[in-house]
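Let us work through a complete example step by step.
Step 1: write down the sequence.
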Amino acid sequence: MFENKYIAQRIQKASNLKELGINPYSNHSKKDTSVEKFIDKNKDIFELENRRDEARHFIIAGRVKFFRLMGKATFLKLEDESGILQIYVSRDNLKEGFYNEIFKKYIEVGDIIEVGGFPFVTNKGELSLHADDVNILTKAISPLPEKYHGISDKELRYRQRYLDLLMNSEVKKTFKMRSKIISLTRRFFEDRDFLEVETPMMHPIAGGANAKPFVTYHNSLGVDRYLRIAPELYLKRLIVGGFEAIFEINRNFRNEGMDATHNPEFTSIEFYWAYKTYKDLIKLTKEYFLYLLKELELPKLLVYGEQEIDFTKFSEIALLDSLSQIGEVPKDIVDDKEKIKAYLKEKHIEFNETSNLGQLQGELFDAFVEDKLINPTFITKYPVELSPLARKSDDNPNFTDRFELFIAGKELANAFSELNDPLDQLARFEGQMSAKESGDEEAHEMDEDYVNALSYGMAPTAGEGIGIDRLVMLLTNEHSIRDVLLFPAMKPLSKEAKEANEIKKEGE
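Step 2: predict the structure and record it as tokens.
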């Protein structure tokens, strides 16, 4: 594993340090400030006559990112999580012999060190730390890539995110933004008296959404368990139990394909609100997005790639109306299975021949409408065949009281007035079981306990799920889900590919 000659040299240096009585993997640090705080506390140095203050003393720790040796002195760049600071190290300011015998010989780019000293401004006008003490905290035995600006190969960045974070400072900003979005989301719902709850991640039945699950085995119980594809059915059990406003920020798992917007495990928020309808959720969702933009100090006219998304222009349209008005699908075919099939074949779009009318209408939407929905658009009135858990509309039982929110051509949220009729729910599950027997691997399983829960009465309720990963993509202007996941799922590398990656790292 550590056969690289440069690594061997660094391992030897670590060994030499141990022989000199210096632990190259120390667990003792006296760090008392960060780079960001150091810069903030010493802004007034520029106003002082000699632009230095030896009475102030700071201890900073971080990784060496640049090293320029100049005989009796060295300039280096030290980076911590908050930023990069220039350090000036002079032989005459360190304890006798340390500069030549330790500092010059053993400290390299990539090492983590601790530096004490006072603030001053260089002749070039850069606020820096004048060192009077240097200690090695961690000796890096793998050298960082040569290019200071970072790693360009995305495959390597995803596989070795730690190296990506070390070399690409902008990446940290994306994940700090992700953390802030999740924190703001939690605050938004708590401020509206929603209770945060936790539900199981291993389910006896794969339910809550139409998706293919991951299967695991519980040794003690002697049964299969399914990694959660959605928390929906457990959250609604809590509504039956008497909670009226709940949410869960959850990890879900779906054993499906990977692309720019799909990862096998992903994060979403699901929330359920008793005595409300999907129309109330439309209003709440608008408030939520505008709240995030305000708190994140983002404009309502948001740039996403080459698109401009106007958050002052939320709109609503029924799914079937969108087919003709947005997708330009002929009106006379949208209610006819055979005509839809013929149209899809004419347009060279693959579909399942056993699909029912609602599923075929969904195929039309996916093919001709979805990617045209740039500004926030609530698509409403979904066919009942596409919504096994949603309440049927009182106006037309062929459709449900449901919406999906699309922004920049992608689905961001899914919501509906919940089905709380236990007999209707039982019939829907039975229909899903028939679909599964016909080959639909993503059809919903029968969940008798959930039907039993509904039999005790669930208050009229509206529920919604919002994809956090896609939301972060939108608000950080990222176009692959892998860029907003710290450790995205990756295909295993072959031996040859691993060797090629090692060569690539050395050449970066």
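Step 3: interpret the result. The CA atoms of residues 209 and 230 lie 6 Å apart.
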